[in-house]
Design a protein that fits this description.
493 residues, alpha+beta, Nucleotidyltransferase, domain 5, six-stranded mixed beta sheet, 16 helices, 33% helix, globular
């Protein structure tokens, strides 16, 4: 038997088919369009995403030579916090999706905070009020989109993150589709009560969100419904937000185990077991929940810009032709030449949470070359990760090593620099596409493909490990300069 995973990300949609050993037997991937209608606004077309999803599923099954009769389950993992609104009666999306990177709700989150400030809902939800999260995006749509407000008044509005949009369509849409989300995605809405693991009536009322439009909150590993179309009769049985899926796919199932995903953004999560830990600058979130088991929590540091900084060097500045060239360009110089890039394109996320910050390049002299800028961009990803790790250490979470995944882990200059800054080993697994693997594991556990978490842990294998080599004085000099650069980005808006 086989398990398929749909990985709907910020820039593309993939489908990967796995065998019982966790090995890939077929895959396909398609990009989708990015819309930037105004400064700070980022949008996607939900219809295009759905179209790409059906296409990659069909192609991946064809490549794998797997029919639906041999497909035990499908798992879904997705870009988190991105909001889709649609009409339950017609199935039509009500405009474009508002992407997690979008900052149009900056004034709204300050208004919602009022005299309480950004921590108004943190005790209930584990999250600060910030443009990053989904709830304010829903409120913005209700305030600014007449169609959304009209469907809400009529009772036909459905809103949710991308997993909900896909699950509803994969299970039939207007012909019986289920409107669900899992606890990991729900915990990013900024209106989930972490005690009850259901929507908080008080927070939803304060934010002006109609609870009837929200999806039902379910576990991360259970059968939600049966697929239709090319997935006819196949159980849709796992849903995880992408970073929690990577945590599960990296087999970080014991308290204290941590991973960092180097993708469009950068996301470090540490498993905190049954304990919910709160720490300044970090997010308390649900790591995963398997069936009726108690939930597993995580402490997270979210960084908005990582791989997208390399894309910016390529698409906006034209310094490179392909993303993979950035390492070669950076290696044309021996160091950063005292150049620092702070990629606060949509403000700064963890641990700063400054929506007034904007990107800066500092330390420029006539000596600086495009090689120095490329190296500074690579190093910026590692510096941001260090800031998150230091916040975790401040909360009493001591990291002994860091598992890494995502597209940027192929950049060996970045991996070595990361180990040098953190002062601990950085470990890359044999399978670096752990996000889709985590979703497959969740679906396979729900349908009996895999019998236990211990069986899943046995599949994890190390590919390479980087050890720190930088002396403490050099590290301190670089980090101090980085923090000076970060301060220069504050207060721009």
């Amino acid at each position: 038997m086989y398990v398929a995973a749909i990985d709907q990300g910020t820039t593309s949609t993939r489908c990967v088919v796995y065998d019982r050993g966790g090995s890939v037997v077929g895959a396909d991937q398609q990009e989708h369009q990015q819309f930037f209608p105004r400064p700070g606004w980022v949008e996607h077309d939900p219809g295009e995403i759905l179209e790409r999803t059906w296409a990659v599923v069909a192609k991946a099954l064809d490549v794998a030579g797997v029919s639906t009769s041999h497909l035990a389950a499908v798992g879904v993992t997705n870009q988190r916090e991105t909001v889709v609104a649609w009409d339950r009666e017609t199935g039509r999306p009500l405009g474009r999706a508002i992407v997690w990177q979008d900052t149009r709700t900056d004034a709204l989150v300050r208004e919602l905070g009022g005299e309480h400030g950004p921590d108004r809902f943190r005790a209930t939800t584990g999250l600060p009020l910030a443009t990053y999260f989904s709830g304010p995006k829903v409120r913005w749509l209700l305030d600014h989109d007449e169609e959304v407000a009209e469907r809400a008044a009529r009772g036909t509005l459905a809103v949710g993150t991308v997993d909900s949009w896909l699950a509803w369509n994969l299970t039939g849409g207007t012909a019986g589709g289920v409107h669900v989300t899992d606890v990991t995605n729900a915990s990013r809405m900024l209106c989930l009560d972490l005690d009850t693991l259901d929507w908080s009536p008080e927070v939803c009322a304060a934010m002006g969100i109609p609870m009837g439009a929200l999806p039902e909150v379910r576990s991360s590993s259970e059968v939600y419904g049966e697929g239709v179309g090319v997935l006819a009769g196949v159980p849709i049985a796992g849903i995880l937000g992408d970073q929690q899926a990577a945590l599960f796919g990296q087999a970080c199932t014991e308290p204290g185990e941590a991973k960092n995903t180097f993708g469009t953004g950068c996301f470090m999560l540490v498993n905190t077991g049954r304990r919910r830990i709160s720490a300044p600058g970090l997010l308390t979130t649900v790591g995963y929940r398997l069936g009726d088991d108690e939930p597993v929590y995580a402490l997270e540091g979210s960084i908005a810009v990582a791989g997208s900084l390399v894309q910016w060097l390529r698409d906006n500045l034209g310094l490179i032709s392909t993303a993979s060239e950035v390492e070669d360009l950076a290696r044309t110089v021996d160091d950063n030449g005292d150049v620092y890039v702070v990629p606060a394109f949509s403000g700064l996320f963890a641990p700063w949470w400054r929506d007034d910050a904007r990107g800066v390049i500092v330390g420029l002299t006539r000596y600086a070359t495009k090689g120095h800028i490329a190296r500074a961009a690579i190093e910026a990803v590692a510096y941001q990760t260090l800031d998150v790790a230091d916040a975790m250490r401040g909360a009493g979470v001591e990291l002994t090593s860091l598992k890494v995944d995502g597209a940027m882990v192929r950049n060996e200059l970045l991996m070595q620099f990361q180990a040098d800054l953190l002062g601990i080993p950085v470990v890359r697994p044999h399978n670096v596409e752990t996000t889709s693997l985590g979703a497959a594991y969740a679906a396979g556990l729900a349908t009996g493909v895999w019998g236990s978490v211990e069986e899943i842990r046995s599949h994890w294998a190390e590919d390479r490990r980087w050890l720190p080599t930088m002396d403490a004085a050099e590290r301190d000099r670089l980090v101090n300069a980085w923090h000076k650069a970060v301060e220069r980005s504050f207060g721009w808006v």
